[in-house]
User: Fold this.
Amino acid sequence: MNLKKGDTIGIVATSGGFEIDRFNDGIKIIEEMGYNVLIPPAVYEKEGYLAGSDSLRLKTLTEMFLNKDVKAIFCARGGYGAQRIIDKIDFDLIYKNPKPFIGFSDVTSLLIAFHEKSKLKTYHGPVVTSLNLLERKNIERIFSVLSLKKEDSYSIKSVDPFVINSGICEGELIGGNLCILSHMIGTIYQPNLNNKIMFIEDIGEPLYKIDRMLTHLHLSGLTNNIKGLILGSFKNCGDMENLYKLVEERFIGHNIPILAGMGFGHGNINEIIPIGSYGKLQTDTGTLKIKL
Assistant:
């Protein structure tokens, strides 16, 4: 389903509460791009570090998928909380009411779960409260991608590529926040990474914790047959040279293309990547071509 100017975008808060000024700035940007916005009153609720109770956040999410006037859904913020409602989601309802679902960070758990359980093509991209951190050209590209039709293609090019292992690979794209991905291992919602191109990003994690997460992925066996690996932003995660050495060490036996420095995640560039779409990675040119 491709988004058109004038369509209504619904907003949900599946994770943590948010700063109202940043939220309002993000809503203004969506409206400036030519879309109507539907904000349920429940989005503004807070309960501790959560954006309202689990039951309220689940109810709002369900209602957005059922609302025929809503053509796409943006998450208000990441933080934490999405995993708390996954086991109560009606995935058959999502399957019968497909629409673009956009978010990142903590929302990774829903992106993966909807893809695995509802066959929904989800979009790893900005949340409402992060839109005002992005350049206008980046924002325009995001909505341009959401307007594309099935079988259309587009490319993402790294502005600061770092090749950890050169090569070319093709496969279905899957990934998101590294911390959330690692916490999905061992659950019934863990992603199938076989023959996929995996992309990862994170924020505020020291090197030893990233080591733990990558080692967890390695020991789980889930990454044994991935086709390639793409690293986005690892903001406030220490020295990038040491991080890249760690990634090389963890994946040295896989002999797959590995490219770092792609513009997605918590940085000032957050390109949209559809989970479940087909990608072609070329490390030497720092490009990822995506076919919807």
Residues 153-291 form a domain with the Glucose Oxidase; domain 1 fold (CATH 3.50.30.60).
